[in-house]
């Protein structure tokens, strides 16, 4: 663990630790003489704490006018059911939520008039009662103050106390004693002389109200008054009662009356008692002129034992207890203080410190130098005060049990014999900020300035340099050395350092846990370096504070962070779940403690305790003995704003039409740890999922439709999860004029009228258009008939007028061939043969042209066609025509089609003839016919292993008379594929061709139409 922050290192050689020179078996405490008693007590307390886990201590937090209190004099305080702490000050009545104070004595609207508040009380119905001086009594109902009427007119005077009895009745002590019934306060003072001032009142569990006047102690029950003989030395100033029903009387002395007799109790204070309070755990608090004390009654009630701590000096006005068992008090004109039993014990040692736990010893450095504390004594290493004691930045232990300390000027090592060796400029070091770290591989790493190196035989060997001042180091399990700096984290690889994490906050500590490196920074919270990108966990994700100074694991499932506001504890399971994306935030528990400092550290002892350094000394906590509070939060929706205007009725609001923005204000008060409270919410009809957990107490929505809605908000703190504290609000949003039902019906009728009228207009327009189209179709049909007639005439002309000359040429060519053959003229015969071939080619061209024209005009007659039978029939026909070519046909099963039989026969005849012709030059010509489905369409594929063609010219394949090979290579007219293309497109299909020179060609076609494009 890193020496800059808390470190836990086990000694490497037989568990030996440095000892003072000459010591053999045990140490005897030999603190220097002349120290004041306070420092001696602090050292003795630390020695005791090392040997034994100290008892729970009290933490103290104070708020003054600098924190928002309207005045530093606090008269009374009480916590209400919703979690708020109400405090009466000289500056008015305030409500405290753990973070800020809200003054409710402004006198504006429903707020409390600007009277001096003197008494506060919450009754069994969770209504707050407020007593004032010459201003009467008020109740806080539905977020407004209501004045309580007295049955007797006139000024009731100074309301000194308000209490409730076991029957739920409310008693008010003003100029006289009053009882609330029938919505009024009635005088309930039946003493012999009611004009005698009644000093104080206190209820007991038997339903009685105890009080006193100049004549002594008395109790009141059902209108009956009984007086109790009071001891002469019992000067009555204030009363309190405990759970047993006993009454405590305070004044110059402390007395207890249990119904049978009196007992005088000894007090640690010599001052007068001005206030008494009995808490829920059997403790008795006394507010005296010279301090605040807490004691416990012994069995029998004849004596009281007070703790050794005094909670403050000077006069205290009051003390009260909240539902978490935390106590609130006010020293005279010094604000409001909170006293809480803390699981963290603070041990003042006199200043900044750096701490290291090793075996049964605790090592720490402060302004007095380096100290070792064990159960048998305290030892200060001689000479360590010279190593710039005010700025010892790190401390660590090596394999030989030597303790290394680093300051701003020198580096030191305390050997097992207790001798100190100092390393300075002569060892290769510079007078700069230094850091020492002993790695698991036993290397001693030292950083000064921006230089990083190791100590070898007393000399510093520089290794590499980082971009900013090193602040922490960690060697990972894989051997990598990580260096934390003022701007991020570097890793040493291959003799050099490179940056792997950049942050604008100083890295204070690093630890490797659960396969990842966890980095505590001063200002950016916690980082996790794992296999992926670095992940940050800050106050946004649930940390109580981002100013972290150290991190440690307690080995029982928790991570501990030393922060500027005290120790933080987070379960490792939550951190790992957040990094894995299984959680949106973490739940952090803040323990009361002293604030940290720039060189704060953290370490875990062999007994599992966590030691933390603070500004004033050390703190210690035992993680195994911690208990978390289980009281659920009280969550309430306090305000609803419509377009910035607050609604008067919050419970079941009805909201008018035309709203643009709706705003909800809610709060869950946690006085012990307000930073841990997180909220999430949703609005039915607008949010299907919960909002991201956050600390915000406001939810805003825009564009809310009319109708009934339900707003749900949940809260949690560090001990609970969402779902336990929930508040809901159902509300109605009225529709606007355009959103009302009758308007919708009217609009629907209007739209229906427009639709009908528009429909009629469209029908008439379509009828007129259809008539125009019919005329155009008739004209076009007539033109097509004329074109077909002319095409028929042309076809006749071609078939007769062109064929006749060709027949004559062919006839005379044959005769000429026979005549020349007898002469033996070879050249003449060749010329005659060329003429014959040309006429034959011309005849074939005319035949193909006529076929193309005839097929284009012929109407399609679709019928079911067996594709397999048709292909085999065409193939057999081609084989009979050319039996010597020796082609091999591979025919896969083909699906049937619905098409024109004559057209499909021409298609297959041309495709198969093409495949045979262009593969005839191969030694083993092969033709493959198969079917496949692509894009929801059935494709027929004809593949050959012929000469192929350049794909660049594939666009010429299906044009009439276009050829990719010469007549001498492969005979043909170039019309066959054009016929295929014409027949397939007439069926609504598509044909494609592809080939590779020397490897063959592939032709595929489909009769299925292409799917309609998606808009």
Describe the structure.
The chain is an alpha+beta fold. The longest helix has 83 residues, at 741-823. Among the domains are: 7-53 and 346-623, YVTN repeat-like/Quinoprotein amine dehydrogenase (Methylamine Dehydrogenase, Chain H, 7 Propeller), CATH 2.130.10.10; 635-739, Sandwich (Immunoglobulin-like); 741-838; 859-1006, Histidine kinase-like ATPase, C-terminal domain (Heat Shock Protein 90, 2-Layer Sandwich), CATH 3.30.565.10. Helix 3 runs antiparallel to helix 4 (826-857) and helix 4 (826-857) packs parallel to helix 7. It is built from 7 helices and 72 strands. The model is unreliable at 1-17 and 19-35 (pLDDT under 50). Helix content is 18%, strand content 37%. The protein has an 8-stranded mixed β-sheet, with no helix packed on it. The protein has a 5-stranded mixed β-sheet with strand order 1-31-32-33-34, with helices on one face. Strands 67-69-70-72-71 form a 5-stranded mixed β-sheet, with helices on one face.
Summarize the structure.
This protein is an alpha+beta fold and 1015 residues long.
**Total number of β-strand segments?**
72
Low-confidence stretches: 1-17, 19-35
Order of neighbouring strands in the sheet with most strands: 7-8-9-10-14-13-12-11
Beginning-to-end CA distance, first to last residue: 64 Å
Principal-axis shape equals elongated
Strand content: 35-45%
Profile the largest sheet. 8 strands, mixed
What is the CATH topology of the domain at 7-53 and 346-623?
Methylamine Dehydrogenase, Chain H
Structural class: alpha+beta
CATH-defined architecture of the domain at 7-53 and 346-623: 7 Propeller
**What's the CATH H-level homologous superfamily of the domain at 7-53 and 346-623?**
YVTN repeat-like/Quinoprotein amine dehydrogenase
Give average pLDDT, whole number: 82
Radius of gyration equals 50 Å
The percent range for helix content is 10-25%
Helix count, DSSP H or I runs of 4 or more residues: 7
CATH class term of the domain at 7-53 and 346-623: Mainly Beta
